Amino acid sequence: MAAAAAAAVTGNGVPREEDGPVSEAAAPQPQAPTNAPGARLSRLPLARVKALVKADPDVTLAGQEAIFILARAAELFVETIAKDAYCCAQQGKRKTLQRRDLDNAIEAVDEFAFLEGRLEMGSDVDVMLGTSKGQNTKGFTL
To answer: Which residue has the higher pLDDT, 31 or 79?
Structure first.
């Protein structure tokens, strides 16, 4: 089968027009992450995630697998809310995410209802950002 796929491709890896398109089976498949040293399976630092988990007084022990799953879930959550907020920014013909885009995404998507009212001005968000009531926070450009 590999010989047939190779025959449909020229020497430089480009499909020949007379043979038609190369099948999906011949297309290179994405590689699974390896366990090689230095390969990161999570974009969030697992030590930080573990520290956040242990900040809960009800948690006494947390396994490494649970920490990894929580880190991955957090990555997926941030990716989802960022995409939804970016759609709100695009509707306003902007490429820069602003606080109001996150607020609009939270309002529009039922799954984010638990965040409603949690990101109000004067909350811990302003403490983390070092902003006060009179200051505007800068947007993030994608």
So the answer is: 79
